[in-house]
Design brief:
Elements: H1 11-20, H2 25-34, H3 41-58, E1 76-80, E2 85-96, E3 102-111, H4 117-130, E4 144-159
Parallel strand pairs: 1-4
Antiparallel strand pairs: 2-3, 2-4
């Protein structure tokens, strides 16, 4: 089990690590409680379910080294009309206050040669946190707590030459 489970902004990554290490949802919830970060069982199960879905959908991408720029062989080519660079995708999670529902948002970070997954996550969090809430026309969920963010993929933007 992860040694330390942080609540604010890291619950999803911590659950993802627990999934990767083969722990059950109940073991994850017990670890949260043991560390003084108990959550409602229903919410904890939702978080763990999201982590299991992420692990299944994105394989090892969300759990890769967060401080290492992805190598070329770890990226996939993405044909474009003229843009080049690297596109890194981040999935953000929020918990609605009223319903307890988990909301997912996506953010893409473009750079020339790639940045570390942690930098991509930080940029995504900063962009969403600084945007206006959705009830004011922005993209950030209103009345919601940030639960976590994970990198979900990296693509090399490859300009295609028209024939």
């Amino acid at each position: 089990m992860p040694e330390e489970i942080r609540w604010e902004g890291a619950l999803i990554p911590s659950a993802l690590k627990a999934v990767q290490e083969g722990y059950s949802a109940n073991a994850f919830l017990r670890a949260l409680g043991d560390l003084g970060h108990g959550v409602r069982r229903s919410f904890g199960l939702k978080v763990f379910g999201e982590a299991k879905a992420l692990a299944a959908e994105y394989d090892l991408t969300p759990t890769r080294n967060m401080n290492q720029v992805p190598r070329w062989e770890e990226t996939r080519a993405w044909p474009t009309k003229g843009t080049s660079g690297v596109l890194q995708n981040v999935k953000l999670f929020y918990r609605e206050h009223v319903t307890g529902r988990i909301i997912e948002s996506y953010y893409s970070v473009k750079s020339e040669g790639g940045i570390t997954p942690q930098e991509a996550v930080n940029k995504a969090i900063d962009a969403y946190e600084s945007s206006a809430p959705s009830n004011a026309g922005g993209s950030r969920p209103a009345e919601a707590d940030f639960v976590g963010a994970v990198p979900t993929g990296v693509a090399r933007l490859v300009p295609q030459v028209a024939d």
